[in-house]
């Protein structure tokens, strides 16, 4: 038997590693079980971090190709060095996972390499790739194993031609034609990367809109922006199959969602981006008696405790949005609860961002949800075409939309489409965290000239009216 730990966490993604650090800060003896060679989970290794490296690099490539001339910068036509771009991505990943390794050592967190399973409460079994198993004795266990890409029946993923987000981050050359299956965040982000680098991108979506779950007005406007950039959409459509051709290409069979004749779309690469599913394989949850819901997620109470005492779960393996920062907040909360504190997550104020260009950021309720709930609401909107800084930056696409209660003026939701939307959304998150009113925001001085002034103008529009429109 190994030493007795206060807390053992299975998985070192954003939820797991943040939970481990917070628990160690609160005086617990912490172990983390990780099956990969590097810490950080999907997000740091094959998700959020590497995709942002490619998004940023491809945006600069696009800007150098098409945006510099209007700013008075004349350069020869930029040449893509894809191996170096991928090297930048790899270096970014290495720096981030190395940072987590440093933080674990600093906080005296013990790492066990291998697949973790739970034979019973108070025990975690670690099975390494080679060598004997190790059994950890622990007072509490947190499952933070995250999620994996979902797939369509009958479609074989090889991560070369038919890829998930993992393969789409490491293509050896720019495909002439790419079909993206799914118009959610991952599909649009990675599709936009390869489109900027020269691919012809067609997005196939089963629903009649892109970005399911986001404000429908935002989704419609954003789709038009992507179409102007060259992205093609086939909505209300389903992929019936992906066939390989003799010429080393692909033929994607697309049918109307409601049934009908199939259409063939030729492609070099097909990206399957239909969502993610919780990863609980090999944990032995059934043996331990841990209850799951109808979608394979671990059922937890308001304190993240499963149906078994001493076993907790956070992040993508429980209900809620599959977002790294949601998992982080839950990791901090459960560590504080185990330390006797009042850990808490406000699920009504968790931002979501689509890191395309322009970005899309949102927090709180959509207009669709407020209508469905019968809430008496009001809308304040302001376009970036009327923002001085946006004009100077040639970044006038998009708008700010704030939704507030018509009776109390409390802000219920906010949506931004525009340059740096992911950075700007947080003043609205903070406002909502403190149950703020739109008038509070309208009366808050914003530096001039900034893109953020558009947020204040949208708040002013909820009252007596915006100044600059």
UniProtKB/TrEMBL annotation:
Give the source's domain of life in one word: Bacteria
The cofactors it requires, by name, are: FAD
Top class in the EC scheme: oxidoreductase
Q: Give the Enzyme Commission number.
A: 1.8.1.4
Q: Pfam families in the record, alphabetically?
A: Pyr_redox_2, Pyr_redox_dim
Question: Which reactions does this protein catalyse?
Answer: N(6)-[(R)-dihydrolipoyl]-L-lysyl-[protein] + NAD(+) = N(6)-[(R)-lipoyl]-L-lysyl-[protein] + NADH + H(+)
Q: Where is the signal peptide?
A: none
**What positions does the domain Pyridine nucleotide-disulphide oxidoreductase dimerisation occupy?**
350-459
Q: Where does NAD(+) bind?
A: 182-189, 205, 275
What's an example Gene Ontology biological process for this entry? Answer: 2-oxoglutarate metabolic process
Which InterPro entries did the record assign? Answer: Class-I_Pyr_Nuc-Dis_Oxidored, FAD/NAD-bd_sf, FAD/NAD-binding_dom, FAD/NAD-linked_Rdtase_dimer_sf, Lipoamide_DH, Pyr_nuc-diS_OxRdtase, Pyr_nucl-diS_OxRdtase_dimer, Pyr_OxRdtase_I_AS
Which keywords does this Swiss-Prot/TrEMBL entry list?
Disulfide bond, FAD, Flavoprotein, NAD, Nucleotide-binding, Oxidoreductase, Redox-active center
Further information: The active site is a redox-active disulfide bond.
Tell me which family the UniProt entry assigns to this protein: Belongs to the class-I pyridine nucleotide-disulfide oxidoreductase family.
Q: What is this protein called?
A: Dihydrolipoyl dehydrogenase
Its lineage reads: Bacteria, Pseudomonadati, Pseudomonadota, Alphaproteobacteria, Hyphomicrobiales
């Amino acid at each position: 038997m190994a030493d007795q730990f206060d807390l053992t966490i299975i998985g070192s993604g954003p939820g797991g590693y943040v939970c481990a650090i917070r628990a160690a800060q609160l005086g617990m003896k912490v172990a983390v079980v990780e099956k990969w060679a590097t810490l950080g989970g999907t997000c740091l290794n094959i998700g959020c971090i590497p995709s942002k490296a490619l998004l940023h690099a491809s945006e600069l490539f696009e800007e150098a190709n098409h945006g510099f001339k209007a700013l008075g910068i004349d350069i020869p036509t930029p040449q893509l060095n894809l191996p170096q771009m991928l090297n930048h991505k790899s270096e970014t990943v290495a720096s981030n996972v190395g940072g987590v390794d440093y933080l674990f050592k600093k906080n005296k967190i013990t790492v066990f390499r291998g697949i973790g399973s739970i034979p019973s409460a108070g025990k975690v079994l670690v099975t390494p790739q080679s060598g004997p198993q190790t059994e950890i004795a622990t007072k509490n266990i947190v499952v933070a194993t995250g999620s994996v890409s979902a797939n369509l029946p009958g479609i074989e993923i090889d991560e070369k031609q038919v890829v998930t987000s993992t393969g789409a981050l490491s293509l050896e050359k720019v495909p002439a034609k790419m079909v993206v299956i799914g118009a959610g965040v991952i599909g649009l982000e990675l599709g936009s990367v390869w489109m900027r680098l020269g691919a012809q991108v067609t997005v196939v979506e089963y629903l009649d809109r892109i970005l399911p779950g986001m404000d429908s007005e935002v989704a419609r406007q954003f789709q038009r922006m992507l179409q102007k950039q060259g992205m093609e959409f086939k909505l209300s459509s389903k992929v019936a199959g992906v066939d390989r051709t003799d010429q080393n290409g692909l033929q994607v069979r697309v049918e109307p969602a409601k049934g009908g004749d199939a259409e063939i779309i030729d492609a070099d690469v097909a990206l399957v981006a239909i969502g993610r599913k919780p990863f609980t394989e090999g944990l032995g949850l059934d043996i331990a008696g841990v209850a799951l819901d109808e979608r394979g997620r671990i059922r937890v109470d308001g304190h993240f405790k499963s149906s078994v005492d001493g076993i907790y779960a956070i992040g993508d393996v429980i209900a809620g949005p599959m977002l790294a920062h949601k998992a982080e907040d839950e990791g901090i909360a459960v560590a504080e609860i185990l330390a006797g504190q009042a850990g808490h997550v406000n699920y009504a104020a968790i931002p979501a961002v689509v890191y395309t260009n322009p970005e899309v950021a949102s927090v709180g309720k959509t207009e669709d949800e407020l209508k469905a709930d019968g809430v008496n609401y009001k809308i304040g909107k302001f376009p970036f075409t009327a923002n001085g800084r946006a004009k100077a930056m040639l970044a006038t696409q998009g708008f700010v939309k704030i939704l507030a209660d018509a009776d109390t003026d409390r802000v219920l939701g906010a949506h931004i489409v525009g340059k740096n939307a992911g950075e700007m959304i947080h003043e609205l998150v903070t406002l909502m965290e403190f149950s703020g009113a739109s008038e509070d925001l309208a009366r808050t001085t914003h530096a001039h000239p900034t893109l953020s002034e558009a947020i204040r103008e949208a708040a002013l529009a909820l009252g007596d009216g915006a100044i600059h429109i």
